[in-house]
């Protein structure tokens, strides 16, 4: 890139819209969705879909809830034509779904396209021709009147040939291709000329698709174009205004959302944004953006992982790991502060979910479970992770609810391992590190056998134990108000007690016959440092003693 070359790129034209209304509006309902995966998406693939792949994809689009599906360009190839015939002849199209076919404004192509629809119960014929100054000058070398006449003649041909389709409800869609780079008054002139030929009504409206075939401006300019067009269209109630945005500037989603604010009724796009150049609109993103604002998108992405798997298999493309909602890493936090906030949010929600149904978890726009994702993938650990992430993994995957005072130390130990290995640590590795550092540690003090008796009042415990300490066997005993204090007394009588017991807590792991107990002990060594230990055992008292021994051993290694 050379700075002295920048002057060859013209600025986008502004729209003469004195009192724009779209900035103060909000989206209140889902638009009409039209999938163009099987046509626009397919033509952008290095290896186009086979008929069988198209059939499988079509079935998934129907299952997702699309009521309008652009199935192909039947005049372009025999494969496209035969796919549409198979859909119709095998009765694969539900009664509430309309298939859509694309065609250029040429008679032989229109004739072939209409033939492909024989026997369909409902179809949309989508006619287009390019209208922008650049296309008029470079591609067609034709005047405005010539280009408008192409649209008029094409519409007349579609209307004429459609009379041969008996029992098929035909709707008509017209696109002034490159609308985003066309003078808005001229685009309006062409569309109204098309409407004069088609003669739509409020009950049987025309679809006017206004595509950002190439993104040439910021999304607000596209919104201005849409609002201007809607305000100046004579028969607005007899037209469905449709959007078809591409992503050349990386703002296809924003352009669509602002276009809906500006008055559009319908959206064309593809799953995950597949399309020419930088792609089409990602319908998944726009639909789930609505969902995140409490608006039913009227599409079912409750099993987004399966839909993504099918998409990747058929298109041979990969959904990027950071793709909104659908990417592998979008519900994953590596940052320690993010992990801590997520854990607190999830913990809080578990406590108050019955009182407050609103989703309020920091950094997570929606509940991953709503789209078939799993909480297990939310937090993963590397050297950049924090104390909350490690504690969350141990709690969610292994049922270990560590005392909060223990979080920083455990997090530091796990993160040091990740840093040393220069890699992400999976949950099982984190658990192994925790076990080796804290759980049932038996060196230098190992308990071999423990006996305890409670006096008649139940207030005092007498404990006897056979132990190995630094390789030598000992018999020790002590008294206290419970097993833990009795064992501490036994250590004191041997002259081994060099700590103060600061905290003890326990909880159960699992349920039913497989329930175990986990206990945590925090001691303060005579040198002023704190040490933690964890004990896990089927018996709660034994778990507590193992936790104490583990803490003692960690302090005396």
Keywords:
3 domains; alpha/beta; TIM Barrel; eight-stranded parallel barrel; 557 residues; 38% helix; three-stranded antiparallel sheet; single chain; 14 strands; Double Stranded RNA Binding Domain
Low-confidence stretches: none
Structural class: alpha/beta
Instruction: Say how many strands there are.
Output: 14
Termini separation? 62 Å
Determine the CATH topology of the largest domain. Answer: TIM Barrel
Shape: elongated
Helix content: 25-40%
What is the quaternary state of this protein? single chain
For the record, the CATH architecture of the largest domain stands as: Alpha-Beta Barrel
Radius of gyration: 34 Å
The main sheet comes to: 8 strands, parallel, barrel
User: Strand sequence of the main sheet, in spatial order?
Assistant: 1-2-3-4-5-6-7-8
Please count the helical segments: 17
CATH superfamily of the largest domain: Aldolase class I
Beta-strand percentage range: 15-25%
Mean pLDDT: 93
Highest-level CATH class of the largest domain: Alpha Beta
Tell me the count of domains. 3
What does this protein structure show overall?
The chain has 557 residues and is an alpha/beta fold. It has 3 domains: 34-315, Aldolase class I (TIM Barrel); 336-437, no CATH class; 445-555, Alpha-isopropylmalate synthase LeuA, regulatory domain (Double Stranded RNA Binding Domain), CATH 3.30.160. It is built from 17 helices and 14 strands. The strands form 3 sheets. An 8-stranded parallel β-barrel has the order 1-2-3-4-5-6-7-8, surrounded by 8 helices. Strands 9-10-11 form a 3-stranded antiparallel sheet, covered by helices on one side. A hairpin with a 2-residue loop joins strand 10 and strand 11. Helix 6 (144-162) runs parallel beside helix 7 (184-198).
